[in-house]
Amino acid sequence: MQKRITFLTTVFFLLVVFLPDIHAAQKGRQPDNTDSVGPRVTDVIHSMTLSLDDKDTAYRGGDVIEFKVADVKSVPDLVFKKGFIQTVSLNGTVLGSDSYDRHRVRLPEGLLFTGTNRVSVNYIRLYSHKGSGLYRLTDLRDGKVYVYTKREVGDNATLFPVFDQKDAVASYVLRTEVPEGWRVISSNPEELVTFPQNGKKLWTFKTTKLAPQSVSLAAGPFEMWRDRQGQATVRLFAPVSAKVGDKALALLKRISQGIKRSDTNAKKSSSNTHDHVLLPGIENTVSDDSGVAIVDEQTLMKGK
Q1: 141 assigned to some structural domain
Q2: Is residue 182 domain-shared with residue 102, that is, in the same domain?
Q3: Which residues pair with 134 in a beta bridge?
Q4: pTM of the full predicted structure?
Q5: Which tens digit of pLDDT belongs to each residue from 63-84?
Q6: How many CB atoms lie within 10 A of CB 163?
Q7: Are residues 100 and 245 in the same domain?
Q8: Residue 263: which domain range?
Q9: Domain harbouring 261, CATH code
Q10: Which H helix or E strand runs over 252?
Q11: Of the residues 216, 231, 266, which one is the last residue of a structural domain?
């Protein structure tokens, strides 16, 4: 009897692990793998809106993606790891549920054009607890909530849907709706911040030619300090509970010295603004190609 139970348990586990890939093969597609090799989409532009707050355990987003193709038979899927895709339309036609599951969209050949196409995706995703993605942090000192991105090499499709290809470099227009007392930091400085409406503000950012894993985001009720170093602007963001206060100037100078020593960072940054975001008890996430560093506050404040 015990052997039979063990056998059934093993079979169940194998079905749970491998059934999605078997189903994918039956559909004529690959399982999730943003490193797939094949013909490319080009001139990709993401126009995203993310909705963040200090209450939900998930965030919601919408993305209108424009892209060009030379061959409609070879367009890769859109993937969104561990996310839940809710609705999809391609060139104005709403796709049925047979074209997408919770984390992958297959774009029907019959609805694609040679040249420019547009796909719209609405989705929801739980905040991450490991690996790449968008994390939610509660500061235990005062109960305030912050969100931030953490990335791992080769793990692209965890913040928003992306094409299943290695060279998925794109331009981005990111609109982030947050509580009015929050600040938002992304890969380039903000271009527009609206006046509060219904307790919310909309922050808009524009970024050109970044890989998905290089799109950084942090949001929350941060304090901010800034300094000018030659042609560069250095900004420091920290929770109120960090009590940066009169240490801010010394910290900005330390950051500026680090930027001067890093020729690679100076060459790759997509703007002349270098942002450092301090949060308690996190793993450091430095983005040399976007000019944003999200670091554990003790690493900088104690000079570790």
Answers
A1: no
A2: yes
A3: 149
A4: 0.81
A5: 999 999 999 998 999 999 888 9
A6: 26
A7: no
A8: 221-301
A9: 3.30.2010.30
A10: helix 248-261
A11: 216
| Maximum Cα–Cα distance across the chain | 76
Q: Could you write out the DSSP letters of every residue in 68-116?
A: EES-GGGPPPEE-TT-EEEEEEETTEEPPGGGB-SSEE---GGG--SEE
Q: Which residue has the tokens 């290089």?
A: 214
- State the DSSP code for 144: -
Half-sphere exposure of 265 (CA within 13 A, CB side): 19
48 and 173 share a domain?
yes
Structure tokens at 237: 């963001």
Give per-residue pLDDT as tens, 156-181: 678 899 999 887 789 999 999 999 99
Task: Determine whether 84 is exposed, middle or buried from the number of CB atoms within 10 Å of its CB (0-12, 13-18, 19+).
Answer: middle
Q: How confident is the model at residue 128 (pLDDT cuts 50, 70, 90)?
A: very high
Distance, in Å, from the CA atom of 131 to the CA atom of 152, rounded to the nearest integer, reads: 7
